[in-house]
Prior knowledge:
The protein has 4 helices and 8 strands. It has helices spanning 6-9, 20-36, 100-113, 130-141; strands at residues 68-71, 75-80, 85-93, 97-98, 119-124, 151-153, 159-161, 168-171. β1 and β2 (75-80) form a beta hairpin.
Amino acid sequence: MYRTPSARRRKNKTDRLNLIPILDSVFIFIFFLLMSANFLKVFEIGSDIPIVSSAPPPKEDKKPLALTLIINSNNLTLMTGVPSRVVKTFGKIDNDKYDSRSLHEYLISIKKNNVSEETIIFEPKIDIKYEELIEIMDAVRMLHKTDEAIYKKTKDGLDERVRTLFNNIVFGNLMS
């Protein structure tokens, strides 16, 4: 009679690691992390940097507006043209806030004469608080519903209402 060797008779049953409880706890942990996380809305304000080129600028019949806003510690200075000339200065009002309302109203009068212009150059000469900078940017960029309507001609010759003032903000002295 034939006997099977003892090594084959004893079948080594390998114990497998039960991963189900570990995976369950990992998924529950991920679920609680997602439910307890605070999701923040991040807002981005687009801005361009000046373009440095060795090529000469294109020739235009119309003189460039080159609207520049210099932010000083005690006032805002609005300049236009090449070379720049001071057009108007806006001081601070109560509580040491910049007079963004007067700036906004003056920029509306400039926009009426230059409806196709979209660019303004910011040159902060001081360290400025974030909130103050955003307030100035809002005064420069947006037309309010209560502001006088400004229209420009489209390609088809139709009148189109202008929705923004100077929406393309370029920071002029980032390296200073």
